[in-house]
Design brief:
Elements lengths: L12 H20 L6 H5 L6 H11 L4 H8 L4 H10 L1 H10 L2 H4 L6
Helix pairs in contact: 1-3, 1-4, 1-6, 5-6
């Protein structure tokens, strides 16, 4: 099991809450990355969804806060990126289930 920050013995409630929030941000980005084109975007003849492209930049571009967020929840950004590339459908389904439950175990709502 990965030693996430919020599951370590002695993690304060504020640290747990912060880790849960960052995990939810990452989870939302994974879900947004799979957004299809909106009707408006199709009508305009666009070939990409704005939310999806923004989420993909957040997850894969160097220098984005994603790397720091992953580190702060006790995970590895590159490992998460590789997992998304290996099985993107599975990652999106888990994001819709709320990945924060997988990233941050033992945190009460």
């Amino acid at each position: 099991m990965i030693d996430f920050v919020s599951t370590r013995d002695g993690a304060c409630p504020q640290t747990r809450a912060c880790a849960k929030l960052l995990a939810k941000v990452i989870s939302q980005a994974v879900e947004d990355a799979s957004e299809p084109l909106t009707d408006s975007e199709v009508d305009q003849g666009l070939n990409r969804n704005y939310r999806a492209s923004t989420a993909l930049r957040f997850l894969f571009d160097r220098g984005q806060p994603f790397e720091a967020y992953a580190r702060l929840i006790g995970s590895d950004a590159m490992a998460m990126r590789l997992a998304l590339l290996r099985n993107p459908r599975h990652a999106v389904l888990r994001a819709r289930y709320d990945l924060s439950e997988f990233f941050v175990r033992g945190v009460e709502a």
